[in-house]
Amino acid sequence: MADPSDDLEDVLLVGRIAARDAAAFAAFYDRQASRALGLLLRMLGDRPEAEDVLQEVFLQVWQQADRFRPQRSSPRGWVLLLARSRALDRLRSRQARRRREERTAADRGDDRSEAAGTERLEAEERAERLGSALEGLPGEQRRAIELAFFEGLTQSEIAARVGAPLPTVKSRVLLGMNKLRHAFGAGP
Amino acid sequence: MTTMTDEAHARLGDLLPAYALGALEGEELAELERHLAAGCVACQRELAAWRRDLERLAAEVPEVEPPAAIRASLLARVAAEASPSRPPRRRLGYLAAAAGLLLFLTGATSWLRVSRRAEELAAEAVLLETRLATVSAQLVEAQAAAARLSAAMEVLSAPATRSVVLAALPGAPGARARTFVDPETGRAIFYADHLPPLPPDRTYQLWFIAEGRPVSAGTFAVDDAGQAALDVAEVAPPDRIQAWAVTVEPAGGVPQPTGEMVLKG
Fold it and tell me: Three-state SS across B6-18?
């Protein structure tokens, strides 16, 4: 788990990256990139796209290292948050593209919506296979948190996706996050 | 300023997890943002804790090795803007050691004096840095040190914090050490001075004994002045800690104590 001396080492590296130290950037990349790529793959499901975004993320690290604040998060947390934001941007433009395609298909009388449905099913299957603290949660709470975290949905979007009333979704998010806190607190 | 009932505040607090997830919207989002902007420290702390949970969730994804080509491409792009590396300096060591000695000597009660002194040290560090080298790298390092200091001060100023003095054993005559544990956060800080330096293949390791078993609280090194500080994220509640000890171990530390004990309390 996160070792304070690891974090300290990372904070020093980020400081040197802000001073334009390419060796520190390489060292930081070596320490953080595989976890970031893992998160991007989890969110995007597409290897070439995930690798693309990985490059964008680390270029952003290079450009914005002077904006990092150690009080707000660990360097690892900062990188993963950047990765998540960029992945959410990609997911939203994918969604917009798909909606445009579906409208076009509907106009033309095609039935291409099947492809979109398959992609969603695969994403859900992928969610099942993950081993993580989320697995300890009741299915509905886990689903709500996954949709919020890995797909960036708001509570009403989650409600629409899973077909549950909004107050129920709110309660699932709250209970699920409290269970996660407990799971992390009890861990090593 | 309108006073808020405990219930109303608790209701806002319940919105924090969704806010941390980015899933909050509409009127609830606006209300919580107004409350946070008004400066509620308790909620900001709680929000930071939820964000740390989400970082841990994000970090649980399996690692996936990127292809070497990505690393090469990034380094090529970065090379154009890079400056030559400088050898790392022990600025953090200086700051933490100076603050650590001060905190050790003043004890847990003079936190105002300590905080002013800590600000002075941090300000001094920044001045030295900007004179010598690039501003941003130095600021980040001073902020890291200040963050560690503020974590230490949180422990020292917490009302329930308990402190234990460790006494020197023959292996390190004249050494002194103290631990402070905040039972509410489980966070502990440890300071020692007059500890002799060790050869490069050895390190000091801090242990606490709970339920008859020693648990490692981390390894540390002393600086040129013979001082050391350690910030431990999680220890057992003070009631369950039977003793603290420092031993000399092989570099890198060991899972169970094997070496000579130099401090005990």
Answer: HHHHHHHHCCHHH
Place of tokens 């970065």: B78
B45, B72 contact by CB (below 8 A): no
Nearest chain A CA: its distance from B14 CA (Å): 7
What is the 3-class SS of B77-130, one letter each residue?
A: HHHCCCECCCCCCCHHHHHHHHHHHHHHHHCCCCHHHHHHHHHHHHHHHHHHHH
User: Whole-angstrom Cα distance, residue B137 to residue B133?
Assistant: 8
Residue (of B221, B180, B186) closest to B92 by Cα position: B221
Please answer yes or no on whether B52 and A73 come within 8 Å at the CB atom: yes
A14: contact with B, CB 8 A cutoff: yes
Residue with tokens 């693309």: A52
Q: For residue range B106-161, list pLDDT tens digits in order.
A: 444 344 555 566 666 766 666 666 566 556 666 776 776 777 677 777 787 787 88
Q: Among candidates B124, B133, B154, B128, which has minimal Cα distance to B85?
A: B133
Cβ–Cβ below 8 Å for B144 and A180? no
Cβ contact B232:B165 at 8 Å: no
Chain A CB contacts of B77 under 8 Å are: 59
Residue A35, chain B, CB below 8 Å: the answer is: yes
The Cβ of residue B49 has, within 10 Å, a number of other Cβ atoms equal to 15
Output phi, psi for B236, to 5 deg: -70, 160
Q: Give the global pTM.
A: 0.55
pLDDT tens by residue, A99-134: 788 877 776 665 555 555 555 555 555 544 455 788
> Which sign does the torsion angle of CA A25, A27, A32, A34 carry?
positive
**Distance between A70 CA and the closest CA of chain B, angstroms:** 6
Burial of residue A125 (CB within 10 Å: 0-12, 13-18, 19+) is exposed
Residues 38-57 of B with CB under 8 A from A: 48-57
Percent helix, strand, coil in chain B (nearest 5)? 45, 20, 30
Size of chain A in residues: 188
In 10 A of CB A140, how many CB atoms?
16
Model ipTM value: 0.79
